[in-house]
Amino acid sequence: KEYEGQSPEELLxxxxxxxxxxxxxxxxxxxxxxxKSGYVRGFVFExxxxxxxxxxxxxxxxxxxxxxxxxxxxxxxxxFMAKGQLKVDERVSNLKKSN
Length: 99
What we know:
This protein is α+β, with helices and mostly antiparallel strands. The chain has helices at residues 8-14, 19-33, 54-59, and strands spanning 37-45, 61-69, 72-76, 92-93. It has a 4-stranded antiparallel sheet with strand order 3-2-1-4. Strand 2 (61-69) and strand 3 form a beta hairpin. The relative contact order is 0.18.
């Protein structure tokens, strides 16, 4: 709760961060390239977590991005998709699978 995050430059130096750090870096890269993008905050749940439990929601806060391509939003999770895979492991999030 007290984590303040890193700038994109700090993340590139430390090479260690949390989802919000990676989402900020992705958005900064999109901005630099002139690509319209956004930062999304939400929750991610693992099997067995209660989506209605305040504790589980607080413990499962997450951040990811989208960019606009062909007039449509394409969602990207630079944390869970960091290994080059196109699926979000076995987690369920409000990152729509169809996107």
